[in-house]
Amino acid sequence: MKVSPAAPLSVTLLLVLFLSTTTYAHNITKILAKHPEFSTFNHYLTVTHLAAEINRRQTITVCAIDNAAMNVLLEKHLPTYTLKNVLSLHVFADYFGAKKLHQITKGSTLTATMFQATGEAPGTSGYINITNMKGGKVGFANEDNDGHFAATFVKSVVEMPYNISVIQISHILTSAAAEAPVAAPSDLNVTTLMAKQGCKSFSDLLKSHPDVAKTFAENVQSGLTVFCPTDGVISAFMPKFKNLTKDGQASLLLYHGIPVYNSMGMLKSNNGLMNTLATEGKKKYDFTVQNDGDDVKLETKVVTATISGTLYDEEPLSVYKVDKVLLPRELFKGTVAEEPAPAPKGSKKKKKSSKKGGADDVEDDDAPGPSQDDDEDPAADSANLNWANNVKSSGLFVTVVISIICVAII
């Protein structure tokens, strides 16, 4: 067998390519989701779109703040775009694990934050001073904060050297520059927008419930995604809507809004459970976003709706048409805690109507309630599916690489 002179070089290049494609990116949202004490911080990383920016960075340190410390910041009622600048001070463009924090050369260092990277931070206001203090403490202070250390290191949460480090600090890091007012987007009238784009019936329902319409309007500035059933779908559903209590009607309408901006690309890449404007305490009122080829489907465990078009998509607002009314199981199939009664032996399930646009297409009154499997986390199922797909793709890639190497050697 004669080996081609180019074979060693080809093999080396292919192996480098293979190793580069098996690198897994971090996901700050999933990391923090395992630590409920940071749920508020995690939520606002998503609302301000910092989460996506963090995930794009290859080397990063995130200083997480627990819920109590976040409440102190939220009491200032800062606009979303100003809040983003403040939270940006908590994201360093360098890797700092617990060991590195306690072994800083000369005991003190300056590190750039994502606030500095925006270009909106005047002078050195986008830098954080990290200093080893007496008693083994590590202090953090904004560079323009006159040497006052606003926070100290609490613990390491997650370390993935030298990709991402998530640490907890005791208090909010802020500065006058970060809290300076930021221009907000022009006001958007959600109901007027929907009425002009084939969703007038849904818009009219919102107007008939002023408190609901107000909730939608108040969420626009901080980020809002609306799923709007088209006029024909609402018309077919009206008899069932009228049978709901006033509170039930309000919850159903709120169920069609997510208090976070989502572009179509974000919906496709962030499959999993979504809380809605109707979510409150034990009342989950959530649904699952799941890709189906090029389509994006919304699964409520009562119905599965498909996004059929985009009415508006410009941050901080996106409005999508859907082909069915989203039915929360809290209203139409009982609560999650309830279990369906066992069906009598020999009984047969009724088939759903295949007519499109009819009332039976929205809900099957004879369908069984949620089973025990319904209480499993759809997000976990989605994660397992994504993992399986990654494994399958990696296996295919390995096969191709091996085949090319064999050809090169021959």
From TrEMBL:
Segments of skewed composition (Basic residues): 346-355
Annotated FAS1 domain residues: 25-173, 186-326
Keywords: Cell membrane, Glycoprotein, GPI-anchor, Lipoprotein, Membrane, Proteoglycan, Repeat, Signal
Range of residues in the leader sequence: 1-25
Membrane topology, from the record: Lipid-anchor; GPI-anchor
The keyword Cell membrane belongs to this UniProt entry's keyword annotation: yes
Primary location recorded for the protein, binned into one broad class: membrane
Lineage top rank: taxon: Eukaryota
Keyword Kinase: no
Renumbered residue ranges of the record's region Disordered: 337-383
GO cellular component terms listed in the entry, alphabetical order: plasma membrane; side of membrane
UniProt-listed Pfam families: Fasciclin
UniProt biased composition (Acidic residues): 360-379
Gene3D superfamilies (UniProt xref): FAS1 domain
Location(s), subcellular: Cell membrane
Free-text function comment from the UniProt entry: May be a cell surface adhesion protein.
Similarity-based family: Belongs to the fasciclin-like AGP family.
Protein name as annotated: FAS1 domain-containing protein
Provenance organism: Solanum commersonii
